Amino acid sequence: MHFVIMGCGRVGSTLAVNLENRGHSVSIIDSNADAFRRLPEDFTGQLVTGLGFDRDALRQAGIEDAQGFAATSSGDNSNIIAARVVRDTFGVQNVVARIYDPERAEVFNRLGIDTVTPVTWSADQMLRELIAHGPHVDYTDSQYGVTLIWVDIDESWYGMDVANIQRITESRVAYIGRYGQALLPQPDTVLQDGDDLWLLVQQQRTHTVQRIMNHHVQEDF
Question: Which UniProt keywords apply (predicted)?
């Protein structure tokens, strides 16, 4: 598959190399030709000097044959303009933009443009390291208000089946980590001592679900 990347900074250059190492063809656009020095000497992708939202530069990079586009420059405005041009003008639906402002990122998510927000991601990772207990957010879809979380479990939940966990927490069990493997559970799968549990929850109920799982379960299941 062919991918086009806007911005040859640390993120863009790393992404380009990783895609090429997986066997994909890559074109990378940057307004500063010196930025291409970040790429290794054996990089074989196409280098285009220009603006990532310029239609001629995008065509030169092969956007009309691309299966995906990533806007990774340091400017929110440039990234979102480029993402919309690629999606609306060239019809590429697999588009992602790096957006530093979390509030703006949520707006663009609702417009159907996937975003990566370094500020939110970094804060979540630091919170995860600082706080031993509590929900660890692994993924949030702001467009639909759904979050994937790892939850800290009170031992009284061990022995309960997935159907009852979902009923009590009003969530969905995404998967269970057991003996180093990911288990995709059935409704009658029973939670065992030592299991790690990931739930899909409504975003606004993240901490409510964690409080439920932290406390002794009262029901006779």
Answer: Ion transport, NAD, Potassium, Potassium transport, Transport
pLDDT digits (tens, 9 = 90+) for 180-211: 889 999 999 999 998 999 999 998 898 899 88
155 Cα distance to chain centroid: 31
Q: Where are the domains of the chain?
A: 2-117, 131-214
Show the 3-state SS of the chain.
Answer: CEEEEECCCHHHHHHHHHHHHCCCEEEEEECCHHHHHHCCCCCCCEEEECCCCCHHHHHHCCHHHCCEEEECCCCHHHHHHHHHHHHHHHCCCCEEEECCCHHHHHHHHHCCCEEECHHHHHHHHHHHHHCCCCCEEEEEECCCCEEEEEECCCHHHCCCEHHHHHHHHCCEEEEEEECCEEECCCCCCECCCCCEEEEEEEHHHHHHHHHHHHCCCCCCC
CATH number of 2-117: 3.40.50.720
Q: Which of 79, 73, 16 is nearest to 42 (CA)?
A: 16
CATH-assigned architecture of domain 131-214: 2-Layer Sandwich (3.30)
With a cut of 60, say whether residue 132 has pLDDT above it: no
